[in-house]
Design brief:
Elements: H1 3-28, H2 41-46, H3 51-65, H4 67-70, H5 88-91, H6 94-103, E1 105-111, E2 114-120, H7 129-140, H8 152-161, H9 172-182
Antiparallel strand pairs: 1-2
Helix pairs in contact: 3-7, 6-8, 7-8
This protein binds heme C (HEC).
Length: 192
């Protein structure tokens, strides 16, 4: 084999390796498409205050805690996991939303006219008030949703008022009657 042939083979092998890498790379780095892993760690820490970091935190927490069931675009999954896109649970009453995610819910609930009868665990142990506010603000303002801002002090208040609750809500009806007792001053559940 001449030196020239060797060089040619070397170049072709290199090009092939690059192509393969190119083909394989997207699935491996798929989660960076969500944005947050692309941030160098120092940057996320440096920007730990302010609105943008709240959005980044929300996105990251969503990916960690909610995405597996509610899916990347909040579209839900078949009849088991309800959507978060365009539901009045998400953009409506902040208190009802916090209660649902804080303690979890099972049994029949209405989401966009469909009855789901499945199970979601509570996140009261896993997420603190700021984290819960960040992830809820994220879902309230993603995928076309437009919800009013939800403050971590509201999460703290709802958490404290429902502190004796241990188990997930057994149905939408149970959650809503608890909500009525807890906040008699608030209007119909579902109104923003
Ligand atoms: C293990 C799967 C699972 C995970 C993880 C999960 N959910 Fe749910 N979620 C459900 C199911 C199932 C329901 C419906 C429960 C029922 O049928 O009673 C639900 C209902 C909801 C609802 C009310 C209905 C709707 O679709 O609007 C909201 C809001 C919600 N989840 C938000 C969240 C958020 C925020 C997170 C992450 C912090 C999360 N969920 C994590 C499975 C899950």
């Amino acid at each position: 084999m001449t030196a020239r042939q060797q060089l040619l083979i070397g170049l072709l092998t290199g090009a092939l390796a690059w192509c393969l890498g190119y083909l394989i790379a997207p699935p491996m780095t798929g989660r960076t498409a969500l944005g947050y892993q692309a941030l160098p760690e120092g940057m996320a820490v440096a920007a730990s205050t302010g609105e943008q970091s709240m959005v980044d935190n929300g996105r990251r927490l969503y990916a960690d805690a909610c995405l597996s069931c509610h899916q990347p675009l909040g579209q839900g999954l078949s009849t088991v996991f309800p959507p978060l896109r365009g539901t009045d649970w998400v953009t409506g009453s902040p208190e009802r939303l916090v209660l649902a995610v804080l303690h979890g819910i099972t049994g029949p609930i209405q989401v966009n006219g469909t009855t789901f009868n499945s199970f979601m665990p509570g996140f009261s142990q896993q997420l603190n008030d700021e984290e819960l506010a960040a992830v809820l603000n994220y879902i309230r303002n993603s995928w076309g949703n437009q919800g009013s801002p939800l403050d971590s002090t509201l999460v703290a208040d709802v958490r404290q008022r429902s502190a004796t609750r241990q188990a997930p809500w057994r149905s939408q009806a149970e959650l809503e009657s608890f909500l009525d007792d807890l906040f008699p001053e608030t209007t119909e559940p579902g109104t923003p």
